[in-house]
Amino acid sequence: MVLSRTSQYAIQALIYIATQAPGEPVLNRDIAERLNVPAAYLAKILQNLCKHGLLDSFRGRLGGFCLREGMQKSSLMLVLQLTEGPDFTKNCILGLKECSDETACPMHFKWKPVKNRIIAMLNAMTLEELAKAVLTGKYRLADLPGSALAA
Amino acid sequence: MVLSRTSQYAIQALIYIATQAPGEPVLNRDIAERLNVPAAYLAKILQNLCKHGLLDSFRGRLGGFCLREGMQKSSLMLVLQLTEGPDFTKNCILGLKECSDETACPMHFKWKPVKNRIIAMLNAMTLEELAKAVLTGKYRLADLPGSALAA
DNA sequence: TATAATTCGGACAAAAAACTCTTTAAGGAG
DNA sequence: CTCCTTAAAGAGTTTTTTGTCCGAATTATA
Questions:
Q1: How far is CA B145 from the centre of its chain?
Q2: Which nucleotides of D are covered by protein (CB under 7 A)?
Q3: Could you tell me which of B29, B50, B54 has the C-alpha nearest to residue B39?
Q4: B26: DSSP letter
Q5: Which of A69, A108, B39, B57 has the lowest tally of Cβ within 10 angstroms?
Q6: Nearest chain A alpha carbon to B120
Q7: Distance CA B44, CA B10 (A)
Q8: What pLDDT was estimated at residue B151?
Q9: Is B52 exposed, middle or buried (0-12, 13-18, 19+ CB in 10 A)?
């Protein structure tokens, strides 16, 4: 039902970067502060996104991270394939190594259409779109600093 | 996208028990062997399901586990609420502590209908039904012993 | 060139999840 | 009552995930 923390941080960070002026590097420290996530851990995640070509990074003064040209259009599916592994949509919900239309687990045919909707949703959502939504002010990218609720 | 191993084992075990004669205790050892799952770990999971009233357990000779009276009708949602925690459907996909229609993350309104379909599916699937499906022989509850594929 | 600011890389640490081991309690059968 | 079989309980281990730390490399600016 949930994504790994790594994936959540990655998506949040990418959306945040996408809300900023393109080409202007954003500091890891600023992203971490804004999202209220551990900076050193986030740095690792951003490094990984760089290696996979979603982000560009710049060292030294005026350094930081920004979306690679054209990557505003990338889908959440693409992001999650990087953070969760290339076939995170292909795994059987019961964990069977082999589970397909031919050799199916008892949940397979009920799960399949639902999974397909999830996939369609992830393919449809782009960083650009999500960033625009955030910029309207109607959506929240992180918890308010003061909220200390249960996880 | 996936369930915890604990949840997967729990569902598999419950379906397996549901395929057996009701009232006849099934040995943990037999379930573990059938599902190809670590027996000691499975025992913990079954214990937990007992504590929550889904299973009855019997010690000593002729002991084992069987579904509590009426629990053939229980839904996967019920099972997962026990294994994943009572509000595993209520968590924000981005991990925000507060995320509702009023205070939404940018994915909230896209995710909500999809999540609702997942919930509906989980509510609709019962152990009885799944057990029947398995008994037709068309579905597989565990991997074949010989299959050594990538996870 | 010196300095400060930043990412990079690797090792390390802590927490959570998955899994094991050992002992105890309970129940059925001889 | 004794023996065997089973689950219960709890401590311990391993693996994975999450998170920290520090030194080195890189870059703009004074």
A1: 21
A2: 4-10, 17-22, 25-29
A3: B29
A4: B
A5: A69
A6: A114
A7: 10
A8: 38
A9: middle
* Beta strands, E only, A23-126: 55-58, 64-67
Enumerate the nucleotides of strand C whose atoms come under 7 Å of any protein CB: 4-10, 17-22, 25-29
Under 8 Å between Cβ of B79 and B54: yes
Q: What crossing angle do the helices spanning B39-51 and B76-83 adopt, rounded to 10°?
A: 110
Half-sphere exposure of B62 (CA within 13 A, CB side): 2
Which two tokens mark A110?
Answer: 């009920």
- Whether A84 and A7 have beta carbons less than 8 Å apart is answered as yes
- Which of B30, B101, B137, B18 is closest to B67 using CA atoms? B18
The tens digit of pLDDT for each residue in A80-136 reads 999 999 989 999 999 999 999 999 999 999 999 999 999 999 999 999 999 999 999
Q: What angle do CA A74, A79, A82 make, to 5 degrees?
A: 135
Locus of tokens 């007992």: B50
User: How many Cα atoms sit within 13 Å of B17 on the Cβ side?
Assistant: 31
Q: How far is CA A119 from the centre of its chain?
A: 14
Phi, psi of A67 (to 5 degrees): -60, 135
Check CB contact under 8 Å for A11 and B105: no
What six digits make up the tokens of A27?
């500091």
pLDDT given at position A146: 60
Q: For the purposes of burial, counting CB atoms within 10 Å of the CB of B61, is it exposed (0-12), middle (13-18) or buried (19 or more)?
A: exposed
Q: What pairs with residue A26 in β-bridges?
A: A65
CA B121 to chain centre: 13
Q: Which residues pair with B56 in a beta bridge?
A: B66
**What's the Å distance between residue A38 CA and nucleotide C15 C1'?**
15
B2, A95: Cβ pair inside 8 Å?
yes
Asked if residues B25 and B66 have their Cβ atoms less than 8 Å apart, the reply is yes
Residue in A with minimal Cα distance to B93: A2
